[in-house]
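forwarding from the other thread:

> can someone predict this with cytidine-5'-triphosphate?

sure thing
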Amino acid sequence: MSVLSGKNILLGVTAGIAAYKSTYLVRLFIKAGAHVKVIMTPASKDFVTPLTLSTLSKNPVHSAFYTKEDENELWNNHVDLALWADYMIIAPATANTLSKMTNGTCDNLLLATYLSAKCKVFFAPAMDLDMYKHTSTLKNLKKLESYGNIMIPAESGELASGLHGEGRMAEPENMVSFIEKEILSGLPLKDKQVLITAGPTYEAIDPVRFIGNHSSGKMGFELAKEAANLGADVILVSGPSNENVNHSLIKRVDVVSAAQMYTAVHQYFNDCNIAILSAAVADFRPVSIASGKIKKKNGLTIELAQTKDILASLGEEKKDQFLVGFALETDNELENAKGKLQRKNLDLIVLNSLNDKGAGFKKATNKVTIIDAEEQCFEFELKSKTEVAKDIFNEIIKRL
Ligand code: CTP
């Protein structure tokens, strides 16, 4: 999965021959999982049709301040478009548009939206060799960078005029990897390694039966996705779970039992910066596993032994890792969670109370209280587990 997945990208197309490459760019953004809207300058429609771009982006293309539909005139609100965008990308950016952008000229919808944009703005210059080298163009490029806009450098090669040199808009694949790298470099967990446990563990009784619990793994998977979205390299050690994840920054390690989870976690803990143990690890395992299926009989006693507490073992071992545990409680919730925080030498503990409606196993939502090492408590509303993962990382990042 790309860092662009789920992001809103506003693509501005201006009137240069490289506009045909914008169609490929839209395809690549969509393939990366982004939502795309396109704004064209009126003159760019001579180079590529709005129909092509609307079909590829799966959204209407805007090029004027209002759209005439039958007798209704619809206002294309540049402020709404700008606020919708997580990233704005102007590609190709002609010398004319670059000049207007530097001066704050606002004579078309694209420029008005650019002026309203609060998000990161990328621009990909595209023009002929001598225009690209002209002092005024070079000045404009510098000025736009000083405004905080990010230039996707033009490439060298054969230009539409037949000349050879710099000025050619970057190839769409190169633009996408440039944008992805740039986004990643600004993320708060870049270069951090995050270890997460998720799901239940299964403790075998015989070859067909086990002791398990109702954990779905959803909370841990959401934490892994959020960590990756924040730029971290993630190791997700998961017990049996139907959850799926597909992200280039997440390495999934599947385990079944508490003992296997213990080994996997210890293999990665030394190199990690943050460890979040959200798995519902079985506290007991059968002392011996029957080699064949246990036959029906009148009653059965299974002797159980305690599993090793993975979180507590990390608390003993930790050097400068930031260690986060979970506590699922039914009584004396705060007191028990604070006890676990101290006993297991944690930096944060996330408390779920089974008394809260909508919290706990197999739900898409959760209601948590986060307690830090100073025993300060932060209580959150009932939210989707995706949002809860964001809250947890906000609290972690504040304390790193
Ligand atoms: N945990 C763990 N290894 C275990 C048991 C629990 O790593 N063998 C971790 C969980 O992943 C969670 C935290 O410990 O982050 C708390 O688990 P919980 O079951 O609530 O607490 P316990 O310490 O097992 O205490 P109790 O069961 O008595 O409430």
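Residues 197, 258, 277, 279, 281, 283, 307, 309-311, 325-328, 340 surround cytidine-5'-triphosphate (CB under 6 Å). thats all i got for now
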